[in-house]
């Protein structure tokens, strides 16, 4: 089985997607399930003693993801995230109590924002809105609208209080966007539920380019994950992961061309513009919430600063591929830890 978007997942003794293997008594069998949440398809691969257990476990895990979607979606006007932003419009700067899940995501996101000097920033909602329109109209954002939106962006405009579990947004009109962190957190939570409630630790949760891995499959020493190359004609790189997460951000499929310039869906919070040129950043971390957010920062930062950020993160590793245009060669920059996750050539 291969899941290929920006990241492809394989495992020892794989079968076709959507099937199950019946196990002998006392053995674990492999099962796969999928469900659409957070604007993408979540896929779960798990090893369980029987199909009914696997189905109950996956259903509960998807329900957890759906719950988080109702909290963190910026498309749902009634999500907790959007209600928070609307409440700030009415009373700017007032501390607002929020749920444990939303606070944890904001707290972890703010830590990455500070460590990356704003290369990752959850306050980019106003910019994201403009670029969603640009992708539909094939036109750059209006210069004045872009300048106005940038005034609403900045992680320093967010104040968290862990004791009271509140958040305060300092400027009216601010809009938080968790598209660069929520899926990683949801994958973590789904994997945690499988382990805590169903004692299923040999599992993997994939959400487009964000993958969180648990214990290795039976008779294997890790989950094999293929990272799609920056060019479709090239071969993927293969990783082997156990109790780790990996996230890849790039413009292989999500981009818009305007005036002959290719703009990535990944935005630079400081310029307000989509990244140009070709770039793919892969980050391995202990948790999906880390890998998801750090890969956005690694995409925006210059490679040397991205390497320093990842090197300072316990257990994290990165590989960054940059191609300025179709006529220039790729430049690959990898952190020292990255090599330890490379799997042997399977050919």
Care to describe what's here?
- It is a single chain.
- By secondary structure, the chain is of the alpha+beta class.
- The chain has a domain at 80-169: T-fold (Orthogonal Bundle).
- Helices cover 31% and strands 27% of the residues.
- It has helices at residues 51-72, 80-90, 100-115, 125-137, 143-150, 182-198, 288-300, 303-311, and strands at residues 3-4, 7-10, 29-37, 40-48, 96-97, 158-161, 166-169, 203-207, 210-213, 223-227, 237-241, 245-250, 255-258, 261-267, 274-276, 278-285, 317-323, 331-334.
- The strands form 4 sheets. Strands 3-4-8-9-12-16-17-18 form an 8-stranded antiparallel sheet. Strands 1-2-10-11 form a 4-stranded antiparallel sheet, with no helix packed on it.
| CATH classification, class level of the domain at 80-169 | Mainly Alpha
Through-space gap between termini: 16 Å
Main beta-sheet annotation: 8 strands, antiparallel
Structural class: alpha+beta
- The low-confidence runs, each spanning 5 or more residues with pLDDT under 50, are 1-20
Mean pLDDT across the residues is: 89
Q: Approximately what portion of the residues adopt beta-strand conformation?
A: 25-35%
Helix content: 25-40%
Q: Report the principal-axis shape.
A: globular
CATH superfamily membership of the domain at 80-169, which one? Answer: ApbE-like superfamily
Throw out a few tags for this protein.
about 350 residues; eight-stranded antiparallel β-sheet; about 30% helix; alpha+beta; about 25% strand
């Amino acid at each position: 089985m291969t899941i290929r978007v920006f990241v492809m997942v394989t495992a020892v003794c794989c079968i076709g997607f959507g099937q199950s293997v019946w196990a002998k008594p006392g053995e674990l069998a492999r099962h796969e399930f999928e469900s659409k949440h957070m604007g993408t398809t979540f896929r779960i691969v798990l090893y369980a003693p029987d199909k009914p257990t696997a189905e109950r476990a996956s259903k509960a895990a998807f329900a957890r993801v759906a719950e988080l979607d109702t909290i963190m979606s910026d498309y749902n006007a009634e999500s907790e995230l959007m209600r928070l932003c609307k409440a700030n419009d009415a009373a700017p700067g007032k501390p607002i109590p929020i749920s444990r899940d939303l606070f944890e995501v904001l707290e972890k996101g703010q830590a990455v924002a500070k460590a990356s000097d704003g290369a990752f920033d959850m306050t980019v909602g106003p910019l994201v809105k403009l670029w969603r329109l640009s992708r539909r109209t094939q036109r750059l954002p209006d210069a004045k609208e872009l300048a106005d939106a940038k005034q609403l962006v900045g992680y320093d405009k967010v104040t968290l209080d862990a004791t009271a579990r509140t958040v305060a947004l300092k400027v009216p009109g601010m809009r938080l966007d968790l598209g660069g962190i929520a899926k990683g957190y949801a994958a973590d939570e789904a994997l945690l539920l499988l382990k805590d409630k169903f004692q299923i630790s040999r599992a993997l949760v994939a959400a487009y380019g964000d993958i969180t891995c648990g214990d290795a499959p039976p008779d294997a020493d890790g989950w094999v994950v293929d990272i799609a190359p920056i060019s479709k004609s090239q071969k993927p790189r293969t990783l082997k992961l156990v109790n780790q997460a990996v996230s890849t951000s790039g413009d292989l499929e999500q981009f818009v061309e305007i005036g002959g310039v290719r703009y990535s869906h990944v935005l630079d919070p400081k310029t307000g513009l989509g990244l140009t040129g070709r770039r793919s950043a892969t980050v391995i971390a202990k948790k999906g919430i880390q890998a998801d957010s750090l890969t956005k920062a690694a995409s925006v930062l210059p490679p040397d600063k991205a390497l320093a950020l990842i090197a300072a993160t316990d257990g994290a590793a990165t590989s960054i591929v940059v191609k300025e245009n179709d006529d220039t060669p790729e430049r690959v920059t990898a952190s020292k830890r990255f090599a330890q996750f490379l799997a042997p050539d399977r050919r």
